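sry for the spam today, last one i promise. struct tokens for design, 451 residues
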């Protein structure tokens, strides 16, 4: 008899499964022949191995699935090996955070019941919040890929989220189609401590200002509003857009606001007065997103301009980017002069972030891709992650950098999603870049991309 790698117990289970399969399939002759060949009579198996009806089919389909998974993984390995073989030997070292770009997602976070619209990183801890059309906010541990809690309070879609506040008093701000902004205490089980009302239409965006004591919101009612975090009072209403404001970002020094919207405009507004500093007809379609360039990028972007003058890193606002439904991303200087247009997306551009190392810009959109653009190569797309999600990629954020040492720091702490801590600390040189990106999708999932 040929030797077998199976134990007696495993052989009995296999024989019982085959006999059950023959009997269930009406193959009586085969059933009897196998029984006779094996010398098995009634009661020939232990009671706990007799009932194996359907087990053989289940094992077979499991093997097929595993074979397909193995083939997919082998294909990925071959693709990555080919890419690795084409790199110069000097590039095959441990990734430099200043040049790291996302490649393969580590976790897929599932739990929302409808499209995920927004994500936000905690400025200190490995915490990520996501907001969805299902009205829920979910709080995740992105290092472990685990759900920590579900936060309920809004009655309609949650459209944007942002962490902020003073150190040790971190808050999560959320805004919704229910016309409200809510503040949640991140240090007290995310209890709702304040609800801000005043907008007359959907609130599409909310951001903390660098001082941690004010927030700015953007709405479909065509206004920006600046609120006091401590009291919830609206300090100022800013007009100027003629259509839905889709996104707003404060500059790194907190003195200006960059806003974009369905009127195809990008506007710069003074926080202290609400006066307009600059208005640019930036795109030929709805502008979905914007981002302020960090000082680390000044050298690389300046090289693309005619003057090539490198602004001082002490400046809180020199360049900004806009992404639109016309499938393009545009980089501008603070005077409203176009620096470069990045083309490559096949559908709406939904989200953009500057790499904290300054050399790249990362974008995501309705073509289901993540794209990485290199300023040292004239803004060329140097990496495309196809099918980053199974549906439109709705949001993209970079984990805030760790502040190692910031002298004379008086203002609040938060991450702005560009891998920078907000306020003047973002202009210091005591940062450690975290190679972590999060993306969200209409497919109801969130993905974590890590080095």
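last one done:
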């Amino acid at each position: 008899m040929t030797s077998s790698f199976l134990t007696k117990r495993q052989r009995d289970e296999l024989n019982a499964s085959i006999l059950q399969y023959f009997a269930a399939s009406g193959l009586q002759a085969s059933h009897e022949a196998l029984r006779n060949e094996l010398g098995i009579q009634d009661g020939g198996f232990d009671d706990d191995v007799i009932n194996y009806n359907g087990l053989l089919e289940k094992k077979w389909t499991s093997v097929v699935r595993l074979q397909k998974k193995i083939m997919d993984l082998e294909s990925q390995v071959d693709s990555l090996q080919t890419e690795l073989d084409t790199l110069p030997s000097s590039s095959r070292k441990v990734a430099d955070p200043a040049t790291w770009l996302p490649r393969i997602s580590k976790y897929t976070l599932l739990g929302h019941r409808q499209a995920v619209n927004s994500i936000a990183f905690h400025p200190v801890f490995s915490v990520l919040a996501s907001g969805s059309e299902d009205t829920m906010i979910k709080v995740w541990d992105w290092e472990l890929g685990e759900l920590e809690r579900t936060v309920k309070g809004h009655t309609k879609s949650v459209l944007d989220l942002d962490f902020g506040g003073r150190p040790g008093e971190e808050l999560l701000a959320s805004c919704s189609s229910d016309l409200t902004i809510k503040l949640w205490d991140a240090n007290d089980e995310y209890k709702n401590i304040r609800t801000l009302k005043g907008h007359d239409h959907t609130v599409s965006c909310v951001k903390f200002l660098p001082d941690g004591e004010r927030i700015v919101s953007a709405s479909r009612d065509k206004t920006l509003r600046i609120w006091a975090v401590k009291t919830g009072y609206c300090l100022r209403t800013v007009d100027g857009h003629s259509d839905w404001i889709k996104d707003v970002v404060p500059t790194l020094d907190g003195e200006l606001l960059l806003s974009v919207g369905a009127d195809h405009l990008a506007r710069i507004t003074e926080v202290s007065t609400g006066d307009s500093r600059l208005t640019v007809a930036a795109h030929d379609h709805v502008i979905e997103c914007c981002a302020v360039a960090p000082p680390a990028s000044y050298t690389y972007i300046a090289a693309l301009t005619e003057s090539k003058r490198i602004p001082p890193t002490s400046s809180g606002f020199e360049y900004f980017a806009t992404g639109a439904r016309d499938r393009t991303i545009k980089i501008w200087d603070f005077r409203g002069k176009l620096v470069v247009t990045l083309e490559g997306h096949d559908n709406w551009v939904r989200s953009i972030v500057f790499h904290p190392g300054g050399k790249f810009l990362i974008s995501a959109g309705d073509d289901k891709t993540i794209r990485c653009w290199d300023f040292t190569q004239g803004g060329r797309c140097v990496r495309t992650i196809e099918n980053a999600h199974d549906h439109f990629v709705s949001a993209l954020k970079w984990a805030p950098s760790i502040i190692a040492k910031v002298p004379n720091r008086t203002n609040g702490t938060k991450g702005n999603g560009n891998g920078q801590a907000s306020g003047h600390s973002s202009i210091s040189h005591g940062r450690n870049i975290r190679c972590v990106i999060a993306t969200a999708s209409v497919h109801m999932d969130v993905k974590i991309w890590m080095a």
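The chain has two domains: 1-76, 97-450. ok im logging off now
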